[in-house]
């Protein structure tokens, strides 16, 4: 047991139960209201330990929404629809392979924890799909996304004055790396990989100055994380929103707005003598005590070569690092793709890559070019690029958020197919 961790006590259990009951009541009234609550609850955890796993606000809200859908007798048939089958199968494959890594895994509790997380992501996706197909109303969800993004931005920006969880030495001075309600600056940048393309697509495709203003605030907050990969990923997401937007005028507006924001940011970095540090190939936080990417990537490749099919076991990477000559280092591989190769071998890597490809093909390539599909498609591309050098879906506030919006978009596809039939 970790020192200082909070176990589930009676007051916490009562609070969680009341929250689950509220989620149940909202969902029973309207499925989309439960989905909105899931979106808003995502960054809040207030985690309490039960054994080696946790009870969190998003988990109990998810339970309440699931029970509400049962009470509504929402159909499970959307899960078997052909147009979302690739995503359903890839999510299920991730769960099955993650569980199978118990075979090579040394630390069985770590495999169990990661297996439960994979099951949670599958549940988030499936419940969101069924809920939206049952009650296909987008407007409440866009406003829920705007609200939670505003809350996340405010919680992060205030750390410029109250103190941030990390810092970086730039141009001879220490600057805060804000994180807000997320676990760290890179995770906050991962959240924006998803939120910014979605909000931008909504603002451009359907109009709405407040959505575009929120995009600008979110981008400023993203820059202040000093996550270079995160900023580059959002730029890529903006590009693909523009590319996927129909109408020359709309595409031009996106590109002009994007260029203005990025040029203004670059000018500010040059003025503050920070641009060169951002462009450096070295790690910003090499003194973090978590090991450099070069060390972690080398260890991940070595683990995969030793166990190419099923890896060393889900959740085992950080615990096996001393065996790779990194005593005292305990962290993930700083790359989704190397992490899955190391912990789950070629099977988990393949299942993970299949989920990304399926999401891009389903929503960005094949689906109609509206805000929801273009936004989640561009967000998936941005997150996939960012995770070349960071492992973000490890954190439920990012991974769960991505699977939630994949489920919503899948439900929208099913609802449109029903309406057209």
Tell me the fraction of residues in β-strands, as a range.
under 5%
Instruction: Going across the biggest sheet, name each strand in turn.
Output: 1-2
Q: Whole-Å distance between the termini?
A: 55 Å
Radius of gyration: 21 Å
Main β-sheet: number of strands, strand sense, barrel status? 2 strands, antiparallel
What average pLDDT do the residues reach?
Answer: 88
Q: What portion of residues is helical? A: 55-70%
Number of helix segments?
A: 17
Q: Give the low-confidence spans.
A: 281-288
Number of domains: 2
| Structural shape | globular
Order of helices and strands: HHEEHHHHHEEHHHHHHHHHH
Number of strands: 4
User: What structural class is derived from the secondary structure elements?
Assistant: mainly alpha
Q: Would you kindly provide a written description of the structure presented here, covering whatever features stand out?
A:
- Helices cover 68% and strands 4% of the residues.
- The chain has 421 residues and is mainly alpha-helical.
- It folds into two domains: 1-74, no CATH class; 80-420, no CATH class.
- The strands form two sheets. Strands 1-2 form a two-stranded antiparallel sheet.
- β3 (166-170) and β4 (173-177) form a beta hairpin.
- The longest helix is centred in the C-terminal third of the chain and has 31 residues, at 336-366.
- The protein is globular, with a radius of gyration of 21 Å.
- Mean pLDDT is 88; it is low at 281-288.
């Amino acid at each position: 047991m970790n020192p200082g961790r909070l176990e589930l006590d009676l007051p916490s259990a009562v609070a969680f139960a009341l929250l689950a009951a509220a989620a149940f009541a909202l969902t029973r009234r309207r499925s989309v209201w439960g989905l909105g609550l899931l979106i808003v609850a995502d960054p809040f955890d207030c985690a309490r330990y039960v054994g080696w796993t946790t009870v969190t606000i998003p988990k109990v809200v998810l339970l309440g929404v699931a029970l509400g859908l049962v009470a509504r007798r929402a159909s499970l048939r959307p899960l078997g629809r052909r147009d979302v089958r690739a995503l359903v199968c890839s999510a299920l494959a991730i769960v099955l392979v993650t569980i199978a890594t118990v075979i090579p895994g040394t630390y069985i509790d770590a495999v169990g924890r990661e297996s439960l997380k994979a099951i949670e992501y599958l549940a988030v996706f499936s419940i969101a799909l069924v809920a939206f197909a049952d009650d296909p109303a987008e407007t409440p969800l866009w406003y829920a996304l705007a609200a939670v993004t505003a809350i996340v931005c405010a919680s992060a920006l205030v750390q410029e004055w109250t103190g941030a969880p990390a810092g970086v030495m730039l141009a001879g001075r220490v600057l805060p790396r804000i994180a807000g309600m997320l676990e760290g600056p890179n995770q906050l940048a991962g959240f924006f990989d998803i939120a910014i393309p979605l909000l931008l697509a909504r603002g451009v495709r359907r109009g709405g100055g407040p959505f575009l203003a929120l995009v600008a605030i979110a981008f400023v907050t993203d820059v202040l994380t000093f996550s270079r990969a995160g900023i580059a990923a959002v730029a890529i997401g903006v590009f693909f929103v523009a590319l996927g937007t129909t109408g020359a005028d709309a595409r031009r507006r996106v590109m002009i707005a994007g260029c203005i924001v990025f040029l203004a940011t670059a000018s500010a970095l040059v003025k503050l003598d920070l641009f060169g540090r951002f462009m450096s190939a070295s790690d910003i936080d090499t003194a973090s005590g978590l090991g450099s990417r070069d060390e972690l990537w080398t260890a991940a490749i070595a683990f995969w070569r030793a166990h190419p099919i099923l890896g060393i076991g889900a959740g085992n990477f950080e615990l096996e690092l001393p065996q790779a000559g990194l005593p005292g280092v305990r962290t993930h591989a700083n790359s989704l793709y190397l992490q899955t190769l190391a912990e789950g071998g070629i099977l988990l890597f393949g299942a993970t890559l299949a989920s990304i490809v399926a999401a891009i093909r389903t929503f960005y390539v094949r689906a109609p070019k509206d805000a929801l599909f273009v936004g989640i498609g561009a967000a998936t591309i941005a997150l996939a690029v960012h995770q070349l050098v960071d492992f973000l879906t490890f954190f439920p506030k990012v991974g769960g958020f991505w699977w939630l919006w994949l489920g919503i978009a899948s439900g929208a596809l099913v609802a449109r197919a029903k309406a057209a039939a």
